[in-house]
Amino acid sequence: MGVKNASRAEVVRSRCATTGRPRRTSIGRRIRRARRRNRVRITHPWHVPYLACRVSNFRGVCPFSMAGPFRRRCAVKSLDDVDRSLLQALARDGRAPVRALARDLALGDSTVSVRLRRLRESGALAAIRVEVDPAALGRPIQALVRVRLRHGVTCGTYERRLREMPAVLSALVLLGDADIEVRVACRNMDDLELAVATLREAGAATTSTQIVTRTVTGLGQALLAEKRTK
């Protein structure tokens, strides 16, 4: 069969066999093929040709969700001014709804929702926690206990033991003279002495205790307000 009477597909296969190069497949054809295999689910009523010509230049959240090996997380490489403003608003009031955030930042509701989802998926927004005053639970005395572990006790083992102690509020793994710094909340001085003794029994070689007189609040806003370095 001559090339003149051959179909376009046969001509492409003939050229691939001659040159040894793989046949190119358009983005639209790949999307349609993936849809037939139930690997891609279109979530917006956009036509596939329009999606194919826009997908390579898309800079936001991908307009179609991919399942299985085709799914990719949209990671935030650097926070822009809108992301920082959104995080500042959440730092002031973590219970603010999306509509209130959009009104304060002069953005659309869908834009704020997409930004929040992207920040959560990338890990930039780790969690929005509820902070409880230990004094309301009958533990008004707080202290920082710097712990140096005994030989043979690993940080992972000690962390598991800390999770079983009701007096422990938080802990930091350190590099230096101490291995772990533990923040505890106690009912009275006798309870504090018992908490330190429990920390020693869990695997501490030496401990150093400092009483907390006041907690400074509202920190971290300057970090979010810091100008980006180009």
Description of the molecule:
- The protein is α+β, with helices and mostly antiparallel strands.
- The chain has 3 domains: 58 residues, no CATH class; 42 residues, Arc Repressor Mutant, subunit A (Orthogonal Bundle); 74 residues, 2-Layer Sandwich (Alpha-Beta Plaits).
- It is 39% helix and 16% strand.
- The strands form 2 sheets. The chain has a 4-stranded antiparallel β-sheet, covered by helices on one side. It has a two-stranded antiparallel ribbon with strand order 1-2.
- About 15% of the residues have low confidence.
The main β sheet shows up as: 4 strands, antiparallel
Low-confidence stretches: 42-75
**Tally of contiguous helical segments:** 9
The CATH superfamily of the largest domain appears as: Lrp/AsnC effector binding domain/regulation of amino acid metabolism (RAM) domain
Helical residue percent? Answer: 25-40%
H-E order: HHEHEHHHEHEEHEH
Q: Distance between the terminal alpha carbons, to the nearest Å?
A: 61 Å
Q: Count the beta strands.
A: 6
Rg (CA only):
29 Å
Query: Architecture of the largest domain, according to CATH?
Result: 2-Layer Sandwich
CATH level 1 name of the largest domain:
Alpha Beta
Shape: extended
- Per DSSP, what share of the residues sits in E-state strands of 2 or more residues? 15-25%
Structural class: alpha+beta
CATH fold naming of the largest domain: Alpha-Beta Plaits
Mean pLDDT, nearest integer? 76
Counting structural domains, the number is: 3
Side by side, the strands of the main sheet go 4-5-3-6
